[in-house]
Amino acid sequence: MTTTDDQQTLRGRSLPGNAPPEETSPSTLEATNVSAWFGKNKVLERVTLTMQPRRVTALIGPSGCGKSTFLRVLNRMHELIPSAQLSGSVTLDGVDIYGPTVPVTDTRNRIGMVFQRPNPFPSMTIAQNVLAGLRLSGTKVANADALVKECLERAGLWREARNRLNEAGGALSGGQQQRLCIARALAVRPSVLLMDEPCSALDPISTRVIEETIRELCDELTIVIVTHNMQQAQRISDDCALFLVDGENMPGHIVEQRHTAELFEDPSDPRTSDYVHGRFG
Fold first, then answer.
1. Judging by DSSP bridges, how do beta strands 56-60 and 239-244 pair with one another?
2. CA distance 244 to 26
3. Which CATH class is domain 4-10+24-113+193-276?
4. Is-contact 152 129, C-beta < 8 A?
């Protein structure tokens, strides 16, 4: 059970009330024996994984093996589905994020999310998009212009957008929109950034820029990314976990988790070797 002290520990690096955003340090995110259901359909089976600070952890595996569901469990988006159920625990620096005294908004401030398709707010300008999370939470910022510049720089978009800050976010290209969504996630000072196939809808040039951004950001954050691209997982991740299912209508589970180079070059499970070498999936 999460105590009041636990709540304060989690909130200490978030954005309570109208306090300005403060710098955070990367955190350790740990899932222990996580199982998940949609109604009676079990989609995850006892997943245990530690995601280390200043490292990129890639979740790989074929479609339908629970990777994206697991990602949503990590910042409490799974509970938004009425039929969803969950067992096991998820801790952020040792604090249970599902604890009864931990507000969900605090969790989502600490654990940001970037989705598969770019989703800037179409009625907002580029600058307004960056600040949207803060404004929705009622958080005031002493120097909004400086924060916009900082987040766009960190997301690798400042040079392209600096003269377009008052244009609609939807006027940007697909790759630029995705970097705008990254900047928006960074504005609330998360210590963990979750990314669900952030390059799947992008062209190769935009993909390269996003990958470079991810590698730069991992010096400051804990990053967890779902990807179906084996080359991308090798290029950008430090650690890798392979999710599989054992049969039709069976829940997904982790088959193997190791440093990325070891998993691809010397896997311990033959199913891992078959998957990463394209023999199935």
1. parallel
2. 29
3. alpha beta
4. no
